[in-house]
Amino acid sequence: MSTDFHQKSVSLLSEQLAEKGIDIQELLSKISAFQIAVPSWALGAGGTRFGRFSIGGEPRNLEEKLDDIGLLARLTKKTDAVSLHIPWDIPQDAQAIRQKAAELGISFDAMNSNTFQDYGQSLSYKMGSLSNANAAIRQQAVEHNIQVIEIGKSLGSKGLTVWLADGSNFPGQAHFRKALQWTEESLKSIYSKMPDDWKLLLEYKPYEPNFYHTVIPDWGTSSFLCRQLGGRAKVLVDLGHHLPNTNIEQIVATLMHQGMLAGFHFNDSKFGDDDLSTGSIKPYQLFLIFCELVGGAEENAQAWESISWMIDASHNTKDPIEDLIQALESIAQAYAKALLVDRAKLAQCQVEGDVVGAQEILQDAFLTDVRALVREARVRSGGEDDPLAFYRKEKIREKLIAKRGKNSQASGL
Length: 413
Ligand code: PSV
Ligand code: MN
Ligand code: MN
Fold this sequence. Notes:
The chain contains 15 helices and 11 strands.
């Protein structure tokens, strides 16, 4: 798009919004300030249990993962942090990694522990980790999480994200209450080792890899466990961790009402934990989630700054960097649209029982084309006007393949 055409689009939108009493400058600064962390494991090709197709030029180590995120940061100005997964991303020299990240303008978001795979540790997690009926296995899983905290401390991270694959495949395999009790005790041991300025983000997921029962299947169980730990433990909402048709925006509102929302793992899905690009399947749902977030923060349910933002995606078919550019753009668009909602009028419609009016207000915001706004915010922050076009024009993937090889494989899923 030409610069001239872009400027005309911004002026037109600015005029339209001014008529509604919305100041475009304030919108631009909010959009620019909003940053979303990228997970280290999204930079390589993911896979399914049937196969994995290499994209070529995948980062071969943590340094190269940082390079890719640095590139994303430079092009999009929508991310300034990476979320690491241990043991996939154990730094050989934490000081040097911290230094490199700082040079790229990247900080370390929440650290992720991994007790859902065996990677050479002495006891197997096949039958679970923090909830395992065997105390020695629980202890090993606790120690792993403490090790992750230590690594995070050395990098300047301020959070630990825990996702448990624990559960059972068949009735009778596990004792529901004991498994929950053991999980609570294990989490308490981990929480007690967390620095005072850290937060613990506890994920939930209804099924997979276990298909009969999962120890932390829903937000209620996660919230219950967090409450047993203390004020710095909160619930992490991964958009893919819900049964089809779940009203996720209501869950967000309920958690904010309790001050229990830790943050997000953004992705999208058609069926389950599909980890598809955010906004590619259900953009209206993403917008409604942001409406709750913006409304909840404005009405002081929970401060905007207390919420962590992260992508959690996996790519079997797309170039991961292109996918992340698209995801960051979709998230920014959903946020921008939610900022356009006339909340005072909406509240009025709710009082008057004006269902049609309420729907019109939401759809008016959702159907506003905010692409010029998001682009303008990015350009003003020093990013590329069209990051995807730039990435393709500069043949960045080809250059990465030339440097890292056709069959390089990033550690991760
Ligand atoms: C599990 O499905 C999950 O969403 C958790 O966040 C993990 O840490 C992540 O995927 C990567 O395996
Ligand atoms: Mn997740
Ligand atoms: Mn997931």
